[in-house]
């Protein structure tokens, strides 16, 4: 993690749990825990495989809605079959899906695998679903804010919800290359106030990253 990634907060505050053990992800069920992050730095081979795949794939996004099953794994494996060290990309996403299945037991998920050259959602916004798993390969990942650093513009006429102000750079946390995180959204019942404010990864000129998102649907 980068800036503010391990800030100590009072026990009554919203918690952002960041550890180098996958078991931390299960703590997303704890009251007042908004984010859990498994720090698992990407290897050089995996990062370069992601970069090479993205350059070849251009804007060929993979989107899926349904159950986590063998057919899904076969489709993902086939995506990376012609990429050098593509097996490392498949294994990373396979691990994400396996952990998501084990922790949340979904009947239906939404999966997006996005070869990206630019920030898809650069403005900071609340997560609107129930819970999302995210990871980025090839460079730094999703940006997020702790609750105390979220500020709003004044409401304008006919505006139902305020817009989040662009934060100071020193207040922004960033997932590292390879990290796997779970974040709560506004539809997590009785935890709506812990919805995480996120923005897509930042990109330098000619930078390529593979962004992976798994959403709980039912």
Please, could you describe this protein's structure?
This protein is α+β, with helices and mostly antiparallel strands and 218 residues long. It has a single domain (15-148, 174-216), classed as B-lactam Antibiotic, Isopenicillin N Synthase, Chain (Jelly Rolls, Sandwich), CATH 2.60.120. 20% of the residues lie in helices and 25% in strands. The chain contains three helices and eleven strands; from the N terminus they run ββαβααββββββββ. Strands 1-2-9-6-11-4-3 form a seven-stranded mixed beta sheet. Helix 2 packs antiparallel against helix 3 (86-104). It is globular, with a radius of gyration of 17 Å. The relative contact order is 0.24. Pfam families: DUF1826 (PF08856).
Shape-level CATH architecture? Sandwich
Structural class: alpha+beta
CATH class: Mainly Beta
Query: Counting H and I runs of at least 4 residues, what is the number of helices?
Result: 3
Query: So what's the overall shape?
Result: globular
- End-to-end separation in angstroms reads 30 Å
List the helices and strands in order: EEHEHHEEEEEEEE
* Main β-sheet, spatial strand arrangement: 1-2-9-6-11-4-3
List unreliable stretches of 5+ residues. Answer: 1-11
User: What summary fits the major beta sheet?
Assistant: 7 strands, mixed
Task: Describe, in short, the structure shown.
InterPro entries: DUF1826 (IPR014955). The chain is α+β, with helices and mostly antiparallel strands.
């Amino acid at each position: 993690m980068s800036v503010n990634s391990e800030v100590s907060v009072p026990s009554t505050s919203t918690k952002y749990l960041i550890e180098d053990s996958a078991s931390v992800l299960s703590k997303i069920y704890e009251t007042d825990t908004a984010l859990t992050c498994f720090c698992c730095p990407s290897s050089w081979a995996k990062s370069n495989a992601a970069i090479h795949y993205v350059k070849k794939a251009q804007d060929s996004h993979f989107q899926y809605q349904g159950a986590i099953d063998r057919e899904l794994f076969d489709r993902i494996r086939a995506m990376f079959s012609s990429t050098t060290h593509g097996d490392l990309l498949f294994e990373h996403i396979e691990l994400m899906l396996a952990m998501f299945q084990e922790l949340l037991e979904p009947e239906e998920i939404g999966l997006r695998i996005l070869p990206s050259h630019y920030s898809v959602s650069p403005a900071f916004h609340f997560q609107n679903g129930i819970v999302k798993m995210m990871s980025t390969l090839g460079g730094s990942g999703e940006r997020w804010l702790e609750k105390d650093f979220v500020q709003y513009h004044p409401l304008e006429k006919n505006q139902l919800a305020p817009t989040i102000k662009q934060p100071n750079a020193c207040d922004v946390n960033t997932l590292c290359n390879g990290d796997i995180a779970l974040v709560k959204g506004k539809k997590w019942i009785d935890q709506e106030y812990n919805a995480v404010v996120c923005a897509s990864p930042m990109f330098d000129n000619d930078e390529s990253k593979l962004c992976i998102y798994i959403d709980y649907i039912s």
